[in-house]
Design a protein that fits this description.
six-stranded mixed sheet
Length: about 260
């Protein structure tokens, strides 16, 4: 990780996001540096997904500012915003694959944001970029499933395909939104390890949202805790004790 004090991937200053009268995030200020691996924790409804969407430029804040590598996101033109979004990849709670399509085309869908229209049409008709897709599937342990129907894969395998789809465009920023929430503990550990490993190998900035704190905490640089739309915890993983986590998840049974 690049720890230079003057390098910032993101800088959020008093960022709030509301849905009508309901606040999702309130007065969030934080800095994320390139290559940081961050575990984003907190009970459901605390604002974690909203924060990820703001970082990706999919949502805009109701108030406050978000700087991306020193540039105010609100001041970006449409082309700059599209360029920023193309540098981000989001791994969702569900794999969100097209079950009728083969694994190859599901992975290749991760390139759509960076492909010209004629390449998109060509990729739908022909088996383009087969070697690149095969290489990524090998990295996630699915090299032999490239031409299988995505609907025939297990839940854990589908999440692996979703990770390959996120990686195909070589994103600078990986945003993972509870990608292991529906998986059993063993599969959740495998998927978590895979995502952290791939982010580290590619030097990507990773914000990993998960309730599986015990699985991820030893391999991240930092733990961010959100409760009630506010950042209530920002510390190195070795400094996050049981009392802090109990307070973060007070009234919830989601901590694992």
């Amino acid at each position: 990780m690049n720890r230079s004090a003057d390098v910032e991937q993101f800088r959020l200053e008093r960022v709030s996001r509301r849905w009508g009268d309901r606040p999702a995030l309130e007065e969030v200020s934080l800095t994320i540096r390139p290559g940081e691996r961050i575990l984003l924790a907190g009970p459901s409804g605390s604002g974690k997904t909203t924060l990820l969407r703001l970082l990706a430029g999919v949502l805009r804040p109701s108030s406050g500012t978000i700087h991306v590598e020193g540039v105010d996101l609100m001041g970006m033109g449409p082309r700059q915003v599209r360029r920023h979004r193309a540098r981000c990849a989001i791994v969702e709670q569900g794999a969100l694959l097209v079950p009728q399509s083969d694994v190859h085309h599901n992975v290749l869908a991760g390139r759509v944001a960076t492909m010209p229209w004629h390449a998109i049409v060509w990729s739908a008709l022909w088996r383009t970029e087969s070697e690149r897709v095969r290489e990524l599937l090998a990295r996630v342990g699915l090299a032999d499933r490239q031409w299988d129907s995505a609907g025939n894969l297990s839940g854990g395998q589908q999440q692996r395909v979703a990770i390959a789809r996120a990686l195909i465009a070589s994103p600078a920023i990986l945003l993972a939104d509870e990608p292991t929430s529906s998986l059993d503990p063993a599969t959740a550990r495998d998927v978590t390890d895979l995502l952290l490993e791939q982010a580290g190998d590619g030097g990507a900035t990773l914000v990993f949202c998960s309730h599986w704190i015990s699985i991820a905490r030893d391999r991240v640089h930092r733990v961010l805790g959100i409760r009630g739309g506010r950042v209530v915890l920002d510390a190195r993983p070795e400094d996050v004790g049981k009392d802090a986590l109990d307070s973060l998840y007070r009234g919830s049974r989601e901590q694992m």
